[in-house]
Amino acid sequence: MIDHTIYIGTLRAKGKVTYLETASGGKIFENEKIWDGYIKHWANTAVNARRLTQLDYEDGMPIIIMWPEEPIPNKPFIHIYYNERLVKYFDSTLGHLAINVNGKIFNFAKKINENEILTKEEYFYRPALGEFAPSPNTGKQEISVNGKSYFDKFGRNFMRGIHVLHVEGIDTDKLFKILKEELDIIHNTPPKPEEPENYPDFHVIKRSCTSIVRNGLRKYGFKKVKGVVPRDFFVNAAYNLQKEKGLKVKIYKMPQLLVPECSPSKPTFLFNIKNWFRVKTLKYES
User: Model pTM?
Assistant: First the structure.
């Protein structure tokens, strides 16, 4: 049985020896693989860590996930995430959108296995190991090669720059229920035999990562939020939610944590002319 205990300590790298040093001087994961991306960005930094259920392909050991110590909002909140586009995938030309409801991140996508609810650490900080890594053959997704699948879905913050719309004052239980119903619809829709890995009702305009989140917010009561493309919707939502009474709103960006497995992401073009002007009114916090 895999030990999923969350450990807190300082990430250390001394030559080829890596480990998590606890406050009492203990060494955790000393004989296990710690991803190079963590060492690059967080060596000698306080982090959280635990073992995942998924196994590394090279040694067959549980993959270790690490994430930085970050403040947790003390009030119910949502985060809308606009993920910049991945330059190596045509399907990513428009970028991506996801939503965090009080710590549970809803991800909607074309691939059935990417329609899920994730913890913050698994959405942002999965290592590029095992099934989360890009294929060593193509540098992209490659399903079931030599009995192994490379989904290329490691931590989104290592893959992209991410714009965050933080909102407080929403009934998060109500919104969570609305979005969970959408996720259940996806999981209960039988796939097409010729494309078993895809969600058959996915549509870039009518049934996408953006439109499902947009429709959920509109069903909640925010009728003014509009948009089809992730970045256009993000700008529209930020612009309109700032005007809603009773809401506390702020905007900031999580810069991409660059690693060799992924090229720098790029922001997508704004299609709606109105958003060319709206985006200039948005004040990003540092």
Answer: 0.95
